[in-house]
Design a protein that fits this description.
Chain B: InterPro entries: Multihaem_cyt_sf, Multiheme_Cytochr_ET, Octahem_Cyt_c. The complex is a heterodimer of chains A (201) and B (535). Chain A is mostly helical. Chain A is 66% helix and 4% strand. Chain B is 24% helix and 13% strand. The relative contact order of chain B is 0.09. Classes of the chains: A mainly alpha (201), B alpha+beta (535).
């Protein structure tokens, strides 16, 4: 076992801010959706719309950081991505129960396995932007109608926003569970707090 | 000289210790009295310094100076009681059905106690008569002028009793010498008492508006430092044409600020408040195109006095054993049963009902064939979510049962008011005769049989506007069982959802939870087995 420094200070800050914001967005979104009364519809509405800007800000900030530091290379894969993903999936479906080693070793220059790479890339480049886009369509509905959008689109916009939120909930559950699959059940989370992770030799 | 200096210094020092309350100069105002209000003192007019024997005599005196006044009145619906619609239909009080006292025709001397004229006793009334215009009912500045309830518009000229109520003879020359621009009591004498008494008809108009606090009506609140607006501040009148109509209301004002007066006639909320009235919270302005101001800002009507919500004519006619009429009152003194009129339900703090409304109220007339298998709408608001004129409006919906002709499927006009033996229902309690006479009088066909049908009537609301802190919040409508729970045809966030999306979403989350649980358990078990094996 050795300790490696995987997550820079900004990455950890970004990760946890995004986690808090997404969690708060989900909770306030559910209140607006009518599931429960927590802080009141009106306040939930305001918080939700305010945090949407927060999420946008952090995504933009992250893009800036990844590009300027060159760390975006962490998300690139050499060779056959599908094959590598297959290896990782096979590990989670099979090898993990046989105490097989992780198929991809973590180190300072490669901290994400192929499945993580594709998942986080899709989340950051497709999932969240899509959800944010539909949120903004929803919020600026009146302005868009004034620009000529069909007012009947409010329903599909709202429904897609809802569906994507459910997908996000499912992702969060999966994501939190996956953190327990490291060297020890908490080593991944510790790493995201301190930056240092214990990994198998 | 030194004394003067001492005085100046003393004044300066004292002004430091006791600063004057206002440093700014105060504007000088003349006292508000009769001189500041009018160029004419009507007590000085010779024409008015005489004993008038009747209302029309007073009007003749008025017309000596205000030569065109009656001809202006003749053009108003206050006089004609009829409203020609764009589609050629003739509406107005004179022609429409209602589910209070049903119809004017045949009952004129009683109904026309709220007509702006004298002597409309039957259909022979001369609508071109100038002397029969009643100037005083709107211009009485004394509060002593009142029309006699069954006097066809005349006030009592000698002391007369109406039922248990005493009506004192009106001092016409006193009233004529003290005329004024209409105040709320002038409008209120008819409009607060529509339907036969205080608060009966509208729900948002009753005598509590004579001296309301700001909770009751933020515009008309009459206390110190309140707006103290009266009816004519919004219903700004020109040439005696009082704007504001329930037959052709403006459901959506798209002009915005235009007060005072008409490029946009009549005054609407937006005439003063504009089209983006919410300053601190812009999202509220996004509602303006689809939700009438009244919907959120009139959270309840009949705030102080109960209004009539149900009137069942089919229960009328029950008499005591000795043949006398029955009156049953509720604990607050409101009649819940009268032999003449049937059964009533009164409600206070009424939550309005909401409908899409584009400004067209569709009326059932006495010629309309009705569908008696369901509740008949005497009038109903037109409008739908998609069109650009329609907004969600609040209504008082008055329901009840009223007589109709089950063979011809039409409403009927009974004679209600009349002498004993005349056939009038309130005197003889025989529907057959009352309806037959009423239909004959109106020249309408009657099959000879009658029954009662349940009806509803919509009254759009614009009065009793609450202060902003009492207006509705988001959650009042954006909720599963909110105020707009029954209004279909559009997507309302917080209220609506798609069942398929919910099922797919919940299934996905459930499957994920199941998946990670199974995976976790398997991991736990396999690790344990391995460890046990090692040992």
């Amino acid at each position: 076992m050795r300790r490696v420094y995987l997550y820079a200070r900004f990455q950890r800050f970004w990760h946890w801010m995004q986690a808090v914001i997404i969690f708060a967005l989900l909770v306030t979104g559910m209140e607006v959706h009518g599931f429960f009364t927590l802080i009141g519809y009106e306040l939930s509405f305001h918080v939700h719309n305010f945090l949407a800007w927060g999420l946008v800000t952090f995504i933009v900030l992250a893009f800036f950081w990844y590009i300027t530091t060159g760390d975006f290379r962490q998300y690139l894969t050499e060779g056959n991505l599908l094959e590598k993903i297959g290896l990782q999936v096979r590990y989670y479906m099979n090898g993990i129960f046989r105490n097989e080693p992780h198929p991809f070793k973590k180190n300072e220059i490669s901290r994400l396995n192929p499945l993580q790479r594709i998942t986080y890339l899709m989340l950051t480049l497709v999932g969240l932007p899509l959800q944010i886009a539909f949120g903004f369509l929803y919020y600026y509905f009146n302005e868009l109608v004034a620009f000529g959008m069909d007012p009947d689109w409010i329903e599909p916009i709202a429904l897609i926003h809802t569906l994507l939120a459910y997908l996000l909930v499912a992702f969060v559950i999966m994501h939190v569970y996956m953190t327990t699959t490291g060297h020890t059940p908490t080593s991944n989370i510790k790493a995201m707090v301190t930056g240092w992770e214990e990994i198998d030799e | 000289m030194s004394e003067r200096l001492i005085a100046v210094v003393a004044l300066f020092v004292s002004s430091l210790i006791f600063p004057p309350p206002y440093l700014a100069a105060q504007t000088f105002h003349h006292e508000l009295d009769s001189l500041s209000r009018s160029t004419a003192d009507h007590t000085k007019f010779k024409q008015l310094q005489k004993d008038f024997r009747s209302g029309p005599e007073v009007t003749e005196a008025c017309l000596e100076c205000h030569t065109e006044a009656s001809r202006q009145i003749h053009r108003t619906k206050h006089w004609t009681w009829e409203v020609p619609m764009k589609d050629g239909q003739m509406l107005g009080k004179q022609h429409t059905v209602n589910n209070f006292c049903i119809a004017v025709e045949g009952n004129e001397p009683r109904c026309t106690s709220c007509h702006i004229g004298y002597g409309w006793e039957d259909k022979k009334f001369d609508f071109t008569s100038e002397r029969n215009v009643d100037c005083l009912v709107c211009h009485d500045g004394t509060g002593t002028y009142a029309k006699y309830p069954s006097g066809a518009g005349h006030p009592p000229y000698e002391d007369t009793a109406f039922g248990k109520k005493q009506f004192k003879a009106v001092d016409l020359s006193y009233v004529a010498q003290h005329v004024a621009n209409p105040d709320r009591h002038n409008c209120g004498v008819c409009h607060f008492e529509g339907g036969g008494g205080d608060a009966v008809k509208h729900g948002d108009l009753d005598n509590s508006l004579l001296e309301p606090d700001r909770h009751l009506d933020v515009h008309m609140a009459s206390g110190p430092d309140e707006l103290n607006m009266t009816c004519t501040d919004c219903h700004q009148t020109e040439g005696h044409q009082v704007p504001g109509s329930r037959y052709q209301p403006m459901a959506r004002d798209m002009h915005g600020f235009d007060y005072p007066l008409p490029d946009d006639y009549p005054t609407t909320c937006s005439s003063c408040h504009g089209l983006e009235p919410h300053k601190s919270y812009a999202k509220l302005n996004d509602h303006v195109d689809k939700v009438a101001c009244q919907t959120c800002h009139i959270p309840a009507i009949a705030k102080e006095r109960p209004t009539k919500m149900w009137w069942d004519w089919s229960k009328a006619g029950r008499l005591a054993e000795d043949g006398s009429q029955i009156t049953e009152l509720d604990s607050s003194g409101h009649a819940v049963y009268l032999s003449k009129k049937g059964e009533f339900v009164w409600e206070q703090e009424v939550v309005p009902e909401y409908r899409w409304f584009n400004g067209e109220l569709n009326y059932t007339t006495f010629m309309t064939r009705i569908d008696d298998s369901k509740i008949v709408s005497v009038n109903h608001p037109d409008g739908e979510p998609g069109d650009s004129l329609s907004r969600i409006w609040p209504f008082k919906v008055h329901r009840g049962k009223q007589p109709y002709d089950p063979v011809l499927k039409r409403f009927v006009k009974p004679i209600l008011y009349g002498e004993k033996g005349s056939g009038a229902y309130w005197a003889d309690f025989d529907w057959d005769v009352a309806i037959q006479k009423g239909m004959d009088n109106a020249g309408l066909e009657y099959s000879g049989s009658y029954d009662f049908v349940e009806t509803e009537m919509y009254w759009p609301l614009s009065h009793m506007v609450s202060p902003k802190e009492e207006s509705l919040g988001c959650i009042d409508c954006h909720a599963r069982n909110g105020r707009l729970g029954n209004l279909a045809g559009f997507y309302l966030p917080g209220r609506d959802y798609n069942l398929l999306v919910e099922i797919v979403g919940f299934s996905l989350i459930a499957l994920t939870l199941l998946g990670v649980s199974v995976h976790g358990v398997l991991r736990f078990v396999s690790t344990k087995q391995r460890r046990d094996g090692v040992q």
